[in-house]
């Protein structure tokens, strides 16, 4: 899946910019995120979603409608691409026969049944990537990676691979999504950031989702990660009522993913350890 076919250039943005990923059909988390943006006084043109608005949880159509009505910047994740184009599977990149692939059959089928034709058409209009400048930094927002929408890029992914992606899009900073875990790394020639997701926990034993803020600070950018507390029990109850896999509804309450098939060794070792992310200056 080539992610470079449609890049929308937003020009120069003013900060702060709030970035988040993976609403995952979690209406309660999406409402909480918009409430957080409102408390911070951030208008829609300073909000960016890194994709996968629709996935594991119960409120497919309502989540898409809420995000659409908010008027924010939003790119296609593999789930938007698949649903918008009536593809038979979610396109997540799960290994065939893995637990994640098996579980995806159920939630994707549910999402495919419960999304409206109007929302499908809307998802097709979303760009694959966004580009903007903030405080002089060239920032490219992708879903998985610059060259592949469903490529998993983790904190433990080698730096030279991240640099290759930066060079590919000629950016100072790449903001990715898809992997579900927040992290940030900076080196002399660039930075790779992931805001995490709001619709599922970060496999750290807590219920919280995550979002990220980019704040101009003198000649640099301050990057900070923030926990998102929301009505997780209500979201889990909605999933159970809809007959969705209990593994993911249980994950909303336990903070632990039902499968860690996609995780590299380093990320597997941190399962159940509450995340603490320090701010970066880049």
Structure characterization notes:
The protein has nine helices and twelve strands. By secondary structure, it is α/β, with parallel strands linked by helices. The protein has one domain: Purple Acid Phosphatase, chain A, domain 2 (4-Layer Sandwich). The chain has a six-stranded mixed beta sheet, with helices on one face. It has a six-stranded mixed beta sheet with strand order 4-3-2-10-11-12. The chain is globular, with a radius of gyration of 17 Å.
Mean pLDDT: 93
Low-confidence stretches: none
Domain count:
1
Numbering strands along the chain, what is their spatial order in the largest sheet?
A: 1-5-6-7-9-8
- Which fold name is given in CATH as the topology? Purple Acid Phosphatase, chain A, domain 2
Largest sheet: 6 strands, mixed
Strand-helix topology:
Layout: E1 7-12, E2 17-20, H1 27-39, E3 47-49, H2 60-70, E4 73-74, H3 78-84, H4 99-114, H5 117-125, E5 129-134, E6 137-141, H6 159-169, E7 173-176, E8 183-187, E9 190-194, E10 209-217, E11 220-228, H7 232-242, H8 246-254, H9 265-269, E12 280-281
Parallel strand pairs: 1-5, 2-3, 3-4, 6-7, 7-9
Antiparallel strand pairs: 2-10, 5-6, 8-9, 10-11, 11-12
Helix pairs in contact: 1-2, 3-5, 7-8
């Amino acid at each position: 899946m080539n992610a470079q076919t449609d890049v929308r250039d937003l020009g120069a943005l003013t900060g702060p910019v709030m970035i988040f990923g993976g609403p995952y059909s979690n209406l309660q988390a999406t409402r909480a995120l918009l409430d957080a943006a409102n408390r911070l006084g951030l208008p829609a043109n300073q909000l960016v979603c890194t994709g996968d608005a629709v996935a594991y949880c119960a409120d497919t159509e309502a989540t898409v409608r809420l995000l659409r009505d908010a008027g924010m910047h939003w790119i296609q994740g593999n789930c938007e691409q698949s649903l918008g184009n009536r593809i038979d599977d979610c396109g997540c990149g799960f290994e065939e026969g893995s637990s994640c692939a098996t579980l995806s059959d159920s939630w994707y089928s549910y999402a495919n049944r419960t999304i409206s034709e109007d929302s499908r058409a809307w998802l097709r209009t979303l760009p694959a990537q966004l580009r903007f400048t903030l405080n002089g930094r060239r920032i490219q927002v992708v879903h998985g990676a610059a060259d592949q929408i469903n490529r998993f890029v983790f904190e433990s992914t080698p730096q030279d691979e991240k640099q290759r992606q930066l060079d590919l899009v000629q950016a100072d900073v790449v903001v990715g999504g898809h992997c579900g875990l927040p992290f940030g790394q900076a080196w002399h020639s660039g930075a790779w950031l992931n805001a995490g997701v709001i619709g599922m926990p970060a496999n750290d034993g807590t219920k919280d989702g995550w979002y990220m803020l980019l704040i101009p600070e003198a000649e640099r950018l301050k990057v900070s990660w923030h926990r998102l507390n929301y009505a997780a029990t209500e979201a889990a109850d909605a999933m159970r009522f809809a007959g969705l896999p209990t593994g993911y509804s249980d994950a909303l309450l336990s903070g632990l993913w039902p499968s860690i098939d996609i995780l590299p060794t380093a990320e597997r070792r941190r399962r159940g350890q509450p995340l603490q992310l320090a701010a970066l200056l880049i």
